[in-house]
């Protein structure tokens, strides 16, 4: 970290020196800081960061078990547990250039190697993408027919030799879809012209495995029903663009359902990409000639069935790779950037209504402050996982009883016109409770089922300098519970803290924009019971002596970046550092409703530090590893100003790139890069270790931020803001 903070402190002064003198000054900083690294015993590995090869980008996530072993990114980090039969099929090999409204479309047929020679019960998918040039980050969605199976996004490329990333996803929960012919659609909208030159060369493969990894997740659903715009017959993706489109479908379900779970995929784009930093409506006109993004920093996705409220989803504040400041996210991308998580809603209490053989109206909406319809736009889709009884059986039941509390939104806003805006938005209680009685077929007992959700949030913000400076400190927190006969069988809790400071300035001499940004963001997630998705415990179950009922994940990333832009966006560069800690733990039944992080045992952890596009430290621990703990260290790369094609330009209204751009005439997207080769052999081990790591810093920053915000939630709502800074400024 020492090297980066040297850059960060000197960068504004150095920028004023001019291009040539700037290089000399930066080299001076590098020489000083390098001595510090050597003094701390970090040995150079020049071959890794000076070689002319694509920069490998990655997301820190739980490992996936492949036929070759336990895999993270492009590396095998532990040995395989068995010698199960498997086969691999290439689903897509495609270049996304001018691809808005032109997704990749193919006819998928279940491969005979997977459903003939043996009957596959696991499917893992690998996406590898190569790109070079200048381009924004782009949202991408994979569909099997009209059912969304993966929502991801791209990293922002750079000039030759560009970037590459690999991500693995366990899609065994969609096995009922994989066993049938499908229209496979991969929708990655991109634009290539004289200014935005980066295309995305994407390869998608599926590995089918004759192996079932038991875990706490539910067995794969017998049937999956899409709730989407149903456009696969037109060779298009089926996401709703809300509020431009009404997110509504008439759906007929089977009569013999045992359990039903809806999952919602939702994220904001364009004016809603940074919804978590939006200000209350009272403050949108604080500065002349600027309208700040409004409707507050609360967003809620509501699921309705035949006019009744069936569930709520509170989205994760994903920061994509162009968000806030691009150097924050290269090569270590943000939490969920490559794999956006869906929220599950158990709709089993609605089976008495849904199993009548008729059509039912499913609707989604996204609202902000005061139930207002959000700005443009949100990308929405959903699906319904169904577990069925035997054919001929019919589920009946009572009409669900729904109780819901209104969001007790409390806002305090203090502003001084054309000076600053300070605000606090809280929701201390938002609850939903649904119950009914259902009977699963003739002769079955009548059982009481229920679904319960609760949510709270706090968001502190401060804006000044005409909107060019913003500070946000926020926490979003919730719990979901499914019960039968008053016994809890599914539980999830989630905490999403985020803190950022963003200051932009421009124009200044040849620099049309300079930007200084800090970001700390985390996620604490507990999932216990029969989830519809793989949860990360599956690769470790053969090592565990006892049955475990769930997992918890705790991760936090924090960093600082300096970004500059030249000639109105025709050139750009920057410096950045980021550290992330990640831990995956198993949970026993006794901890089913405990939101605290427990490790029974710790299954996987990773601690990564990145400075100026170089991984300076990367330590990974795997429970009962056959390889050992992986511990790598490298010196930071020297990023000398002068390479002015490092990033896509920032939006003039700030806070990052946009995935929706109108371009000039299209041009040839240029050279198509070769696909990377097969998986490398297992990584070299620097230190063998059997005990769990004792990283005292794991989550310390996250815990401190979360505790501070929880205390603020307990404060008296009627606090007098007469002495706050904006009021003081207004009186001067």
Description:
- With 732 residues, this protein is mainly beta.
- It has one domain (42-674, 683-715).
- It is built from eight helices and 34 strands.
- Strands 22, 23, 24, 25, 26, 27, 28, 29, 30, 31, 32, 33 and 34 form a 13-stranded antiparallel β-sheet that branches. The protein has a five-stranded mixed β-sheet with strand order 1-10-7-12-5, with no helix packed on it. Strands 13, 14, 16, 19 and 21 form a five-stranded antiparallel β-sheet that branches.
- Strand 25 and strand 26 form a beta hairpin.
- Helix 1 (2-15) packs antiparallel against helix 2.
- It is globular.
- 52% of the residues are buried.
- Residues 1-50, 656-696, 720-725 and 727-732 have low confidence and may be disordered.
